[in-house]
From TrEMBL:
PANTHER family, alphabetized: RECEPTOR PROTEIN-TYROSINE KINASE (PTHR21662:SF59)
UniProt protein name: Receptor L-domain domain-containing protein
Listed Pfam families: Recep_L_domain (PF01030)
InterPro entries: Rcpt_L-dom, Rcpt_L-dom_sf, SPS2_domain
Annotated signal peptide: 1-17
Organism: Caenorhabditis nigoni
Gene expressing this chain: Cnig_chr_V.g17482
Limits of the Receptor L-domain domain: 44-138, 210-305
UniProt keyword annotations, A-Z: Signal
Length: 332
């Protein structure tokens, strides 16, 4: 028992030392919690090593934090902002990169926070990126975010964005950061998709010729114009095929992703009678851990035995492992 505790302590110290070797000595901030009595010693470096925590007891103003972080571009260690009273974290606007391989990046339970507003952040390296329990938060506002991943092996980052405001939404660009990274397999997410910008001709709310990303459910019914989905690559919603006269779904040959995080409808629901539901380029069906990924007919019966399934379909994305997933009446 004593040996085990010693080993755990050794590994923790080894990790901290390794992390802090990435910074010059004058750019290391040792205190875990940033408070009014130590903020004056926060390094003025562009790259700082620190396991940084800010909460309700920090007793710091937005202006004090903005001044302290004005030179900060890369944070190595970890970041937690929990139970604070700020409406945003724009005091970290200069930050472009967070490297927190062994720690979470967690912004949670901040009762007044309406957005993050870290407009220059491009990269988050962590095993758990959590923005949850912020009851007033309606948007992320991370317009330059490109990468959320972890560098340790084996490591697959977990995304937790739940229990924020009921109107919380992510933009399609923010969603694609998570959706297109195949290493991210666990989504604890309940989120709407923000209203698409009017000048984005490749994003639409209703199927139309040339549209590549549909914000909303795709409902294929009788007399559906298949030309409107020939270019479609991503559906941010459900795929519903009901009362259609189609023999197959070859019109969706360019579809690569279906992502649905509001949990209001089945992720995929397909009528009986189709000879083939093959979608040759489909890579992922992604849903939150609370919403089952089912492929079924409208009467919740399994599809017919003559149905040809996907050739290159990679996986249903859902955790935990005992959550409902089914194809043709079988679990997967």
């Amino acid at each position: 028992m004593v040996f085990t505790l010693f080993l755990l302590l050794f590994l923790l110290l080894k990790t901290n030392c390794s992390t802090f070797q990435d910074c010059e000595s004058e750019c290391i901030f040792e205190p875990v919690k940033l408070i009014s009595t130590n903020i004056g010693s926060f390094p003025k470096c562009a790259k700082v090593c620190s396991f940084l925590k800010i909460d309700h007891s920090s007793n710091l103003t937005h202006e004090q934090l903005t001044e302290a972080f004005k030179n900060l571009e890369t944070l190595v260690g970890g970041l937690e902002i929990v139970n604070a009273t700020f409406t945003d974290v724009k005091f970290l606007n200069s930050l472009t990169r967070i490297e927190a391989n062994t720690s979470p990046v967690r912004i949670s339970n901040n009762e007044k926070m309406i957005e993050l507003g870290m407009v220059n952040l491009t990269t988050v390296i962590t095993y758990n990126f959590a923005v949850s329990g912020n009851k007033e938060m309606t948007v992320l506002n991370l317009p330059k975010l490109q990468i959320v991943d972890c560098q340790l092996s084996p490591c697959k980052p977990v995304i937790s964005m739940w229990n924020n405001n009921q109107n919380f939404c992510m933009t399609t660009e923010e969603m694609k950061v998570f959706l297109l990274n195949n290493r991210i397999e666990q989504f604890y997410v309940n989120s709407k998709v923000c209203e698409p910008a009017g000048d984005n001709m490749k994003t639409c709310k209703m199927p139309e010729v040339g549209c590549e990303e549909l914000v909303g459910n795709l409902e294929i019914r009788q007399d559906f114009d298949t030309k409107t989905v020939n270019s479609l690559k991503i559906i941010y919603g459900s795929l519903l095929v009901q009362n259609s006269t189609l023999d197959d779904l070859s019109c969706l040959g360019n579809l690569t992703h279906v992502a649905q995080f509001d949990g209001l409808k089945p992720v995929v629901e397909i009528q009986e009678g189709l000879k083939s539901i093959k979608m040759a380029n489909l890579e992922r069906i992604v849903t939150s851990v609370w919403n089952g990924a089912h492929i079924q007919n409208e009467n919740k019966r399994k599809l017919g035995n003559d149905t040809e399934i996907f050739e290159n379909f990679a996986l249903f994305e859902k955790t935990p492992q005992n959550a409902p997933r089914s194809f043709d009446g079988l679990s997967c």
